[in-house]
């Protein structure tokens, strides 16, 4: 045995030939490490050169900062978790400054600080930093989500909130939601008939995508199989928005011509495909509306946008940007929440049974599925929270610190909604906390209660909240009503509590797409 170990090199004695040879990387490391440590010391102790740097230097910040990369090395693969841990250690009053590359970024991790940013000084923080990639993918950032705060954003936000996402409009799409739910139930039923596991993570993105396709462009759209292409394009956007983008951390470097060309090349290709596709759809609607007025059918988003085109001075590119936004913001977000909720419920069978009993009690006997009429008492669906980047537009006082203009601000909604000083069993999935009888039953996700901000708050708050809640609730209620679920051994390979997506420093839902677990479930 000893001989075998010695031969394999695991049992070498000091002084033997192989241990006395210095591995090739050691010498450069011995030189580089002290140099880096020296530079890190210099970076953290150097006197601030400008008034802006002086203000930033006042903010609590982790000491271990390197030149060039700043604090990037401290942010792990789950940024929301790293940022929470760093803020607990180095932050003060829910505020902490990080240098992500060359970008000063204020991380906000307490309800009080979030309220100061998103309510008290909402107008100062209502913009976002901008990027070359979003300029390409969203037609000069002329959509709503990526548009800088200002007149154009106000105009587009007004269209979206008064024409596309009103409560009345969302209700009018009820039959589309119920139809798509029915199709998913049939698919699950068919899989059940042959005794196979159901791949919910595979089904749910198509469910939310298909709803959005019909709402954007009408029934024909899906029948022609175009929904698959939309899914592909939305995925391509998510990858571009969610990957590591040099520009987010080193904006001045990304302004160099060569670098910019490399960063933008892929985005140009993707938007060309979006453009061709959306132009065909819009042209189809234009010619249809010339021959067919007021046929009483529910109008889709393209119809609506064309009908207000002149009133709001919309260009063709503006219309396309809004449509891309609706897909990007409105599909993965809801499917991931559904996936997350189901995965968590399957891990807690007693809770699943309890919620199932509640859903089943509300549905009249003999009904094959839950409709939106049956949903008055549907269980609350807790939604995980995202990290959302904002940009400080003018020097602003927050809790005694002056935040200089140009600082990026990340609201770590995930950390806030798991703060042990606000929530009991803060890290656990406990939907009962939102049910009658619990001390937090009245916790409000409408952006008024800063303990819980799944849809954000203030001027940039999610305008798709009603849309999302309607989609999530009807699907979740039916999944629970129709089937009893259990998990095949070893099929859930990631703990979703820790992996649920948050955004990285670009206004994006990037890590939603990093949410790569696979929820396949058996049902009985
Ligand atoms: C569970 C699902 C969803 C969640 C958790 C969610 C969450 C969010 C959050 C946190 C923001 C940023 C708020 C801020 O900057 O403070 C946001 C923005 C936005 N969301 Fe949602 N969202 C969801 C579904 C939807 C849906 C279904 C739509 C559209 C159909 C939508 C459209 C938008 C748009 C357009 C914005 C940008 C608003 C602006 O910048 O003015 N979202 N969402």
From TrEMBL:
Give the UniProt subcellular location, in the record's own words: Membrane
Pfam families hit by this protein: p450 (PF00067)
Q: Does the keyword NAD apply?
A: no
A GO term, aspect molecular function: heme binding
Which amino acid positions bind heme, per UniProt? 462
Question: Keywords assigned by UniProt?
Answer: Heme, Iron, Membrane, Metal-binding, Monooxygenase, Oxidoreductase, Transmembrane, Transmembrane helix
Chief subcellular location equals membrane
Cofactor(s) this protein cannot do without: heme
Q: Where is this region: Disordered?
A: 1-21
Asked if the Swiss-Prot or TrEMBL record annotates the protein with the keyword Membrane, the reply is yes
Q: What pathway or pathways are given for this protein in its record? A: Secondary metabolite biosynthesis
Q: Record's Gene Ontology CC terms? A: membrane
- Residues making up the signal peptide according to the UniProt record: none
Family from the record: Belongs to the cytochrome P450 family.
Protein name, UniProt field: Uncharacterized protein
Q: What is the organism of origin for this protein?
A: Panicum hallii var. hallii
């Amino acid at each position: 045995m000893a001989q075998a170990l010695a031969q394999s090199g695991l049992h070498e004695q000091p002084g033997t030939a192989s241990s006395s040879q210095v591995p090739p990387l050691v010498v450069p490391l011995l030189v580089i490490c002290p140099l880096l440590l020296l530079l890190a010391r210099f970076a953290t102790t150097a006197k601030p050169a400008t008034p802006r740097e002086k203000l930033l230097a006042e903010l609590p910040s982790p000491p271990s900062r390197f030149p060039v990369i700043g604090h990037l090395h401290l942010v792990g693969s789950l940024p929301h978790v790293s940022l929470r841990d760093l803020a607990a250690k180095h932050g003060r009053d829910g505020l902490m400054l990080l240098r992500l590359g060359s970008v000063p970024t204020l991380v906000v991790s307490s309800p009080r600080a979030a309220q100061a940013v998103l309510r008290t000084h909402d107008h100062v923080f209502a913009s976002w930093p901008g990027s070359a990639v979003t300029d390409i993918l969203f037609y000069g950032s002329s959509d709503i989500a990526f548009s800088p705060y200002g007149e154009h954003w106000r105009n587009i936000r007004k269209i979206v909130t008064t024409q596309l996402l009103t409560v009345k409009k969302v209700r009018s799409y009820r039959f589309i939601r119920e139809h798509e739910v029915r199709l998913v139930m049939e698919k699950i039923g068919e899989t059940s008939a042959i005794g196979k596991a159901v791949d919910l993570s595979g089904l749910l993105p198509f469910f939310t995508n298909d709803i959005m396709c019909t709402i954007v462009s009408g029934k024909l759209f899906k029948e022609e199989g175009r929904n698959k292409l939309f899914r592909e394009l939305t995925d391509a956007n998510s990858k571009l928005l969610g990957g590591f983008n040099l520009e987010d951390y080193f904006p001045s470097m990304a302004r160099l011509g060569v670098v910019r060309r490399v960063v933008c090349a892929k985005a140009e290709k993707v938007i060309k495909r979006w453009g061709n596709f959306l132009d065909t759809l819009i042209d189809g609607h234009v010619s249809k509306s010339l021959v067919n007025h007021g046929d009483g059918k529910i109008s889709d988003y393209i119809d609506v946008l064309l009908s207000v085109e002149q009133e709001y001075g919309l260009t063709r590119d503006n219309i396309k940007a809004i449509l891309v936004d609706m897909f990007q913001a409105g599909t993965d977000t809801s499917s991931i929440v559904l996936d997350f909720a189901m995965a968590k419920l399957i891990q807690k069978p007693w809770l699943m049974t309890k919620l199932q009993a509640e859903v089943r009690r509300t549905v009249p006997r003999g009904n094959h599925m839950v409709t939106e009429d049956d949903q008055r008492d549907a269980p609350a669906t807790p939604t995980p929270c995202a990290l959302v980047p904002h940009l400080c537009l003018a020097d602003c006082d927050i809790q005694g610190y002056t935040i200089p203009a140009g600082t990026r601000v990340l609201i770590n909604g995930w950390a806030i909604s798991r703060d042990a000083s606000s929530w009991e069993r803060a890290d656990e999935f406990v939907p009962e906390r939102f049910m009658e009888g619990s001390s937090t039953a009245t916790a409000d996700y409408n952006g008024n209660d800063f303990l819980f901000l799944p849809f954000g708050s203030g001027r940039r708050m999610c305008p798709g909240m009603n849309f999302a809640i309607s989609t999530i609730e009807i699907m979740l209620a039916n999944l629970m009503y129709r089937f009893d679920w259990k998990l095949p051994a070893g099929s859930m390979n990631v703990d979703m509590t820790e992996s649920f997506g948050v955004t990285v420093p670009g206004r994006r839902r990037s890590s939603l797409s990093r949410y790569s677990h696979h929820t396949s479930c058996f049902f009985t």
